[in-house]
Fold these 2 entries.
Entry 1:
Amino acid sequence: MTLLDFARGPAMQIAIIIFVVGIVWRLVGVWALRQKKDLSEPRQKGAWIGGIKGLFVHAWPYKPFVPKVGTQYIVGYVIHLGLFIVLIFGTPHMLFFADIVGFTWWTLPGGVITAVAVVTTLALFIALIKRLVNPVQRMISNFDDYATWFVTTAPFVTGLMTTMGMWPHYETGLAIHLLSVWLLLIYFPFGKLMHSFWFVVSRYTTGSRFARRGGMA
Amino acid sequence: MKEHDLTLGEELRRQGISRRSFLKFCAGVASSMAIPAAMVPAMADSLAQARRQSVIMMAYQECTGCLESLTRSFAPTLENLIFNFVSLDFQHTLQAAAGDQAIEAIQTAMEENWGKYLLLVDGSIPLKDDGIYSVSHGQSHLDSLRELSEGAAAIVSIGTCASFGGVGAANPNPTGAVGVDQIITDKPILNVPGCPPMPEVMTGVLTSFLAFGALPEVDRLKRPKAFFADTIHDRCYRRTFYDQGKFAYSFDDEGARKGWCLYPLGCKGPITHNACATLKFNQGVSWPIQSGHGCIGCSEPDFWDKEGFYKPLSAGQWGTAEGIAIAAAAGVALGAASAVMSRRNQDKISGGK
């Protein structure tokens, strides 16, 4: 069995099983918790509207904070949008998903995907440098933050190296790229990458609770 | 002078082939093997002095496709002259002799050229049950290979079966088939994989052996680097469509008709090392991708067992989805157990209120 066969077969199966177990475990574990009782009278009706509003209001910083944290938000958006574009509109990636869902969709030229991946990788490095340089951010960072950065950046770097033919053999590069993605999947449920699932829930909950108490979302 | 004693240069003059034509041939071979142009005259001189090389070609567990490819390669050309110049002392499909006469031919060739002959092998060799699944003249091919390799100067494995086991070794490999270099480890071995292999690679290898007395430089899979250094994808004329994101998604869609990249149709070009994209088959007429079919990766080990020729390289090898369903169920159970424990903890903290 070659490294690529291992990456495409057993490694992928193991990673996906760990990913599915971990995600379902955490989702069920949190949703099955006893909900906190709020015995107070709601201050206004339609707390759910506040919840929906919360989803959007927190998508951009409160105006007075923009000069201080605006860059952080922009870097964050570049990373997330870049990840989405490369993952969904890169042809080899689309083919991976098409094999599962049974249909294909429009993709972007390889050169565009490479350019987006380069910009995203740069944004990831800027995010890391900011974290290391800023004393407050550095102080509140733990292993999870750096591990999350590493498992997110590694697929971009290995993917770019594979596309640009920087490995001695393409198949080795492809295998390493796949293995880096499986590492991401394995780590995903147990670290801060779970925010992909939690951010909607937590923003809605915060918004709706604030609204119930009569505050702003 | 006996025909056997002629040098290649004398043979060329006898056939009326000019030195200019011979140099052109040498330049062509040198170019295909990435030998510097400055070496061409020296190579030509060395080649012209070469004596007829004894070659024993054994066909083991095979389909004869490799031999078809080599013998039906081109119309009479200088390349063919190289094939004709070697003394093919045994090849059971091509020779007239059969039975005891054929075996005598092998024995004679071995005795007369002990330590000097080139052994060409075509087909895989079964190991299971002492190699009983592939036998000629009462001798297993496993024993035959061991015996013949002892007196060989070098061994060339022709085709994917002889190189890596090929279709014979495909899952579940009922005969325990393997390639030559998994049995013989004390001789210089060169693999020329492909299903079938390219005749020009054999020309290059034979020319190199005749000119320099040694096999050319090889890669990690013992393939001549000159022909197997690049992938099909690197040299494919459809590569530009891959870069532009223009693909064929079925064999009769617009992309297929326009000759776009076949990656979504399972083309294994990016992981396949061979020279088809540049040399092509049938005197440079065409090759599989030019005919509209993706590369199946026939010059790579275990190419039969990559979960289908039509599955894109980036798609996973899922096996069955049972594992994922079990994983989801396990996740629900773990989640529920965690929640129960957390609720107990909540009750403990709140004192049941």
Entry 2:
Amino acid sequence: MLDSIFAAMRQSVIDGTPDTASELARQAIAAGTPPLSAINNGYVPGMHDVGEQFARGQMFLPDMMASAEAMRAAMAVLEPELKKQGAERPLAGIVLLGTTKGDIHEIGKILVGTLLTAHGFLVHDLGVDIPGETFAAKARELRADIVGVSALLTTTMRNQKGVIESLEKAGLRSQVKVMVGGAPVTRRWAEEIGADGYAKDAMSAVALARELMEQKSRSLAAEPA
Amino acid sequence: MRPRLELLGRPLIERVLAEAFQLIQDPGVRVAPYVVELLRSACIDVADGIAHIPLAQAQRLLALAPHEFFLYDRSGTRTVHYGGDHVHFDPGSSCLNILDPTTKESRPARSHDLVQLVQVAEMLPQFAAQSTAMVCNDIPQEIGDWYRLLLVLWYSEKPVVTGAFSASSLHTLIELLAIESGGYDALRRQPRAIFDVCPSPPLNWSEFASQNLVDLARNGVPAEIVSMPLAGATAPVTLAGSVVQHAAECISGIVIHQLARPGAPIVWGGAPAIFDMRTGKTPMGAIETAMLDVACAEVGKYLGLPTHAYMVAGDGKLIDAQVEMESGISAVLGALAGINMISGAGMLDFLACHSLEKLVIDAEAIASAQRLLDGIEPRTESLAVAMFAQTGLHGDFLKLKETRTLFRKEQHFPSAIIDRGLSHGNGTDCGILDRAGKRIEELLSAYQRHALAPECEEEMTAFAQREGRQAGLEGLPGILRPEYV
């Protein structure tokens, strides 16, 4: 029985149907299904499937946006219930996202944020047209593990470097991993500006964020006590 | 008869314009504080940063924009004719990287790369204008825009398509142009450059873009609107819907511009593209992108305005059959559409990379497109009968006077880049990239810089050294030491 409910949840994300996703979440709560179980066994596998299909070119961006909406709709129902029960999802890391100064585009960034959330990261999205200093101030406030900087235009991708410089100025660079992305961004560009990683799409951003968290844990473990 | 390409036709253009006028009134256009008073002075309502432009005001101001104007070369000759069906090409602009001719890999561009590109483009008649083609990574970011203009003015006599990176630096670029032109009045009378100004899709004239529009108009320096709807992402997914958005962005820009100074020269231009739903990339070589360019220009032409588009660019990372197929097709389509300035040659990898090799190959595609525009002319009184009367059925047309007189008019002769079976020195041919490399060598060795008047050079270098020093720049990269003190 539970398996078929989880399968329906998974399918609601793949189909990108927010109404179905939230209704299934409500039914799960009413039936006494632990919210964490619904998230981890129903919705997250759905988002994972979507990410994989997208990476293989079998799903398209509008489909993925709809899946992200369905995921958000389910989480809007399940998260308050999680809190009520005093349960918590294991936190994969704290990620601060934003689009560089001068750039108002955020489709890619929204997808990255949704997939990261689906995979257990706590994501704070600063929005668009964000100066480097704002990234640094918010990273300090949130004690962010990762800062993700997006840019859609060749003219604004240069400002990704400015974000890294702001983090350096604020003395945060050693504590925060920086990942960059966006249509004109390349691995070479990421290396050149001193970012810790580059992700070509939302699914690889999740893999990168996990890898950066592992790197962070290793470097913390290596520090003298 | 000149061949033409039209994709919309009058009824659809009128629908596009009707919806564009509707959009700029409701939901309206986001504008910056810099232009709020200007708009209100024309009884255009601005609330919460959104301007609601009534149809009558938009039409009145559109009618003030000139239908044609010229860009001048250094000698004062009218070289670029914006208006009508005149077609010109210039290299793509503001690229961050260059495809290294040795490693065949993309790397950050430097001032030396821009200088070489300018010198090559200077030698190619296919390019009526230069562009500030690259962002030079060896130059501090805050002075990057005027410095690349300095290099173009230093090494080229052709008109320039350029742009500022910030509202404040625009004045530095204009000052530099005024020095080169012999004063602000001379620059206004015979503009050497045109400035690209980009609204942010959808329907947003940012502080930087708004201010550029106004300041360019007030300085009498031509502006080129580069509206960039990305179909399906920052604009409606349908091509027709994106053309509407492009029109709305252009009309609202012209409204601001003409309010600042009625009659100031402005161009209906853009770099629209589709948004690839698999990758989120914006393919400049996609046929739908070229269709958007053609359709957007068609709307501008309907209004009698000068036009611009971003074409002749490919999306692959290397110069290969894909990149050149994309670039060649869009060069031909842009020319057939009669677009006044077609920017983009030399660029690949979604506009992220420039290449000298691609620039010289694109020049061949452009030359073919230009030949196409000349069409098929009846050059003799009888088309064929009189020539047959001379040769009979022997078919010795090679001996005819007409053949010798007319073959140069009928046939375009490409450079050695195009393989037409001419021998290649030692008889081996390693392909088009090899031939392009040789062509670049030839062009660079034949290039000779024409110095400006000594007092002008002195003033320009003094200006550049003063401004550069403030940004921590040492010397003038890209300009040889003996050429300035």
